[in-house]
Design a protein that fits this description.
Elements (H helix, E strand, L loop, with lengths): L2 H29 L15 H69 L7 H10 L9 H20 L12 H21 L14 H13 L11 H24 L16 H27 L7 H4 L3 H19 L6 H24 L4 H4 L1
Keywords: Acyltransferase, Membrane, Transferase, Transmembrane, Transmembrane helix
InterPro entries: Acyl_transf_3_dom, Glucan_succinyl_AcylTrfase
Organism: Sapientia aquatica
Length: 371
């Protein structure tokens, strides 16, 4: 393995670890009062905590799952070039299909039964009944299902092209990134007229899929030039400035519109200016964070060797984190401490425990082939 490939793998794997940790913290924040859906929620009476949790969750939502799709598209293109169509599809079915089935029919109902303990429902009876009824609870494995679908579309495109190259060695300019952000915002607004944020269709929140589609496609298109491995600091810093200026803008708009005094401020969908603003706010927040992370992680000097232990566990930790988060929430639910403190305790513990539990799982023969 060359040093170039090693460096590429290292820094992108480190990013996957951070993104996985953010997913865990994101769901923990929702559990303790942030906006969004989760198995088990405890509302906070503090307006400040609600605002902080919602800000944290909103910024995360703007970029972290889209970042996963960008990386997935990037490596999908490389995988197809290396393996060909048959091995590519078999690998996708194995690595995505099996976890979807396991989570949907086993771990998802398990997590749902855990959450119902708070409502004084017996855990084992509830879990058994859900299993018997063949309840399918996809939870965060919607990502794997969407990625499996995107992979099938990519496969069809490559098969249709035959022996022709999918792309040249393309590298996006600032103008291309700006156009991608505008297309993403317009697409998000259009999708949310059909399926507002917070509503599911086909077990997924389609309202967020504009950025997922654009970023997955971008990962595929720019894989041949290995652009993610060569983003320069100048471009990253300029777009990070855009992100930092954009983040407070939506909340300033909400304050000026009287949202915190109870005035209507609907951002989830429909023909409204707040919905339009939110749709375009997301990509202009996301692009700078994504580019700056790609640049900073690549140029980081002497990263800790511990990253090598965490990186292979990232997908397994992603899969198993829901019952971990819910269990910690149940344990802390009656503690007479602020929800912000509960978030710090449960969030940090959930990250560590999810990655720790992933280690013995991956030690099971054959698991590394799947996870």
């Amino acid at each position: 393995m060359t040093s170039t490939l090693t460096n590429r793998t290292d820094f992108l794997d480190r990013i996957r670890v951070v993104l996985t940790a953010l997913v865990i913290l994101h769901h923990t924040a929702i559990m303790f009062g942030g906006s969004g859906g989760w198995y088990f929620r405890m509302e906070t009476d503090s307006k400040l905590e609600r605002i902080l949790f919602t800000l944290f969750a909103s910024v995360n939502q703007a970029f972290f799952m889209g970042f996963f799709f960008l990386l997935a598209g990037y490596f999908s293109a490389m995988s197809y070039d290396k393996k060909g169509s048959m091995r590519f599809i078999w690998d996708r079915l194995l690595r995505l299909g099996l976890p979807i089935l396991f989570y949907g029919f086993v771990l998802g109902p398990f997590t749902l039964a855990l959450a119902r303990i708070h409502d004084h429902k017996p855990f084992f009876d509830t879990w058994a009944s859900l299993i018997i009824l063949q309840t399918f609870q996809i939870g965060p494995l919607w990502f794997a299902a969407a990625l499996l679908f995107f992979s099938m579309v990519y496969l069809l495109v490559r098969l249709a092209l035959g022996t022709r190259k999918l792309t040249a060695n393309l590298v996006p300019t600032h103008l291309v990134l700006l156009l991608a952000a505008l297309i993403t915002g317009a697409g998000a607004f259009a999708l949310r007229l059909w399926v507002p944020v917070g509503q599911e269709l086909w077990l997924m929140q389609i309202g967020y899929f504009s950025s997922y589609i654009v970023l997955f496609a971008g990962g595929c298109v720019f894989a041949r030039s290995r652009w993610l491995e060569h983003i320069d600091g100048t471009m990253a810093k300029r777009w990070l400035l855009v992100s930092l200026l954009t983040i407070p803008s939506l909340f300033i708009y909400a304050i000026l519109a009287g949202a915190f005094q109870g005035a209507p401020f609907e951002t989830n969908g429909g023909w409204s200016l707040p919905t339009l603003a939110y749709a375009f706010w997301e990509p202009f927040v996301a692009w700078g964070i994504i580019l700056s992370m790609l640049w900073r992680f690549r140029v980081a000097q002497n990263p800790s060797p511990r990253w090598r232990n965490w990186a292979p566990r990232a997908f397994a930790a992603y899969i198993i984190h829901p019952p971990v988060v819910v269990t910690l929430g149940l344990l802390l639910s009656d503690w007479p401490i602020p929800h912000s403190v509960k978030f710090l305790v449960a969030g940090s513990a959930a990250v560590v425990l999810s990655f720790a539990i992933a280690w013995p799982i991956l030690a099971i023969p054959g698991m590394r082939r799947i996870l």
